[in-house]
């Protein structure tokens, strides 16, 4: 990946820390079997649907063969899909599926295809991945077993028998800092628990598990809802169904077919609302009697009352710490209640802030207050109980209104759920038009430190300015939305990696140079980091781009003040010698190999097209110590790439290791004859791959 510093756009940096020449060698700790299995399980979930789609393609072609309907292009496409499955299924632990895919590929490449044998192979292929979690994928299933130690407020409890759903939710929840605990034994569930952040009830599983009219009744869900956020996933959507769930206190009803990422992002936002910090009630023009009444009204709540004596002090407090509600007396020495209300309504950040004006029993004061935009007008003589009820109602209504909005309240860009939906729509649009799409994740460096030292208001100001600049740099169908507490996701339709990098780096460069005004009047200069990934070079799904962006963002943060963009996932600038160049068009296989390379901290770059790799390596634009070269590639196959590298003298300083699901003696001899140093048959294990790289003496190649 190319790293560009916003302070000097175009300057390249290495993603890994530079050690002194006499520093001791870095000790690399190999992952445990459990950790390795868990990582493979998560990677499998990222690519599971692609594998199932390939199986469906082979099944459709097999049906045509059995009907004597032949289409050479369709058969060739199915053979290619089988070839990819033979490698990727095996590496994920589906050994039977790998063998069946290899047999299907062999039959599809014969001049006369035996439809009966092909059908048998395809049936075995489908059976290998249907209704079961195999090999390392079992790590997710085991990790989701209920355990007393797992019951924390950072966990989602999922009541489901659907292993695919559980696994998908587990992967997506991990991305936002939550774990998933599942239960397939609902009759023994203690519904009075209070340790989970949210409970997800899969109605489809509940029917077969315990009967929807059994334990998971309105009463049971009501008991759960009293302790945690409850969401129901269902295939039903009638008025009666929703009325029953609403009576039980369920806060979310979603379709079972919804993408796991959208389910989890909605859960995360619901939990965040439930964990809201104590409310701040800011008061101005409060007489001694009014202040005393407010204190009594808020005495038994989580609200903090902050009373200020002047409009200037109140406004400074608002800018410095924010507020959830403003209570102002109608009459004031500097500003009247309606005048202050108009000031708040005119402010781009505070215009949604609920404002209560308190005065006497005067119809004219009431009319003037509401005309100025007040949310309520209350009599100063009302009881403390009634005053407390009205204030809490306004606070709750404000939060619910904010929750119903797709807008992030701080930056006015889309919130996480809205951004997920918008990115999915634009990504599909770009895919349908066969146009490039770039995803970027941008964060503010050391954001927690900024808030702690410079104040929440300054931190929010930096966020708003960053969001506004990113929106300004976007075009047409592009998307900008709040993604995390400290940053944004940007979807750029029609923008290649280099173009997107230039646009994003320009925004960050300008904002870092400008600085941001602090409460002291000085200008502080903050820095930013970004990770980027693009289609078609980095993946064919939005989920794969998200994962690559997260990895790239992690590298950018390690360096600090940098943009890590994907130019075919280069981990170093092209002018240096890269540890490993991976030439592989299967995203699932590439993700596993890249994970393995990361274990040894190897710098790498990936190409998914044979001709592109041959040009970059053959002309010296990219130099590598090792090339991991797949045989079945678009544009130019692995043997063609190897032949180009030999003719250009690249093999003098570069070792090539061939990767293929076919390992015939003829193929092996051909690769060696063209200059390959080694040959690895798919599927292979990560330890085997790393051992072969060690044997190639990656650290000593010139």
Structure report:
The structure is a single chain. The protein has 702 residues and is α/β, with parallel strands linked by helices. It folds into five domains: 35-132, Four Helix Bundle (Hemerythrin (Met), subunit A) (Up-down Bundle), CATH 1.20.120; 144-274, Rossmann fold (3-Layer(aba) Sandwich); 285-404, Response regulator (Rossmann fold); 407-567, 2-Layer Sandwich (Alpha-Beta Plaits), CATH 3.30.70.270; 573-702, 3-Layer(aba) Sandwich (Rossmann fold), CATH 3.40.50.2300. 47% of the residues lie in helices and 18% in strands. It is elongated. It starts with a strand and ends in a 7-residue tail after the last helix. The relative contact order is 0.08.
Question: Which features would summarize this protein structure in a list?
Answer:
702 residues, alpha/beta, Four Helix Bundle (Hemerythrin (Met), subunit A), Rossmann fold, 5 domains, 7-stranded mixed beta sheet, 25 helices, disordered N terminus
Give a short summary of the structure:
This protein is α/β, with parallel strands linked by helices and 702 residues long. It has 5 domains: 35-132, Four Helix Bundle (Hemerythrin (Met), subunit A); 144-274, Response regulator (Rossmann fold); 285-404, Response regulator (Rossmann fold); 407-567, Reverse transcriptase/Diguanylate cyclase domain (Alpha-Beta Plaits), CATH 3.30.70; 573-702, Rossmann fold, CATH 3.40.50.2300. 47% of the residues lie in helices and 18% in strands.
